[in-house]
Amino acid sequence: VSHAVGREEWATCGAVFRAALPYGLAIGVAGFAICFLGGPLFRAIGQPELLADEGGRLMVILGLGLPGVFLWTVAGMTLQALKRPMPEMIAMVAANVANVFLDVALVFGRFGFPELGAEGAAWASTVSCPACRQRVSVSEGFSSPPAIAAAAITAVAGRAAARSASDSSMLRRA
């Protein structure tokens, strides 16, 4: 995308972004599939049964968030290439703050939540990242993180078109 931005080929920015979304989703789903096989994989490498069961369950919980994480990664990198990193930064800060509070609540059983230990930490990470990123997307007026990137492409393209028209009118006057 950054090469297309440098060449001011805005249609290419959108095409690359749209082409990358299915890859992000596919990588996230593949990652979840691998996480779903965590218990058997742990057993295959000779881990004790208890560790394989507990670790496998944690991997499934963490894997649930991977498709969303990879879709947001595509959108976030697109925004960075478009020189619009602020929505991604806000989302990351919000996710980290939410994760701290959810960790305290779910790991140690505070605020009326059950004490879940490591499983609570896994749930906190799985829930906080996509939830905060989606919240930032909605507060920015978009229905989803990819919509932010799509709108950024449109906005940057509009500014570039206006600048190009301005440059053309200045050349005609000279």
What does this protein look like?
- The protein has 174 residues and is mainly alpha-helical.
- 83% of the residues lie in helices and 0% in strands.
- The chain contains eight helices and no strands.
- It has helices at 2-6, 10-36, 38-44, 49-63, 66-81, 86-108, 118-139, 145-173.
- Helix 3 packs antiparallel against helix 4 (49-63).
Total E-strand runs: 0
Helix content: over 70%
| Biggest sheet record | none
Can you count the helices?
8
- How would you classify the helix and strand content by structural class? mainly alpha
Low-confidence stretches: 135-142, 165-172
Quote the distance from N terminus to C terminus.
34 Å
Indicate the proportion of strand residues: under 5%
Rg, nearest Å: 21 Å
Query: What would the average pLDDT be, to the nearest integer?
Result: 78
Q: Which word captures the global form? A: flat
Succession of helices and strands: HHHHHHHH
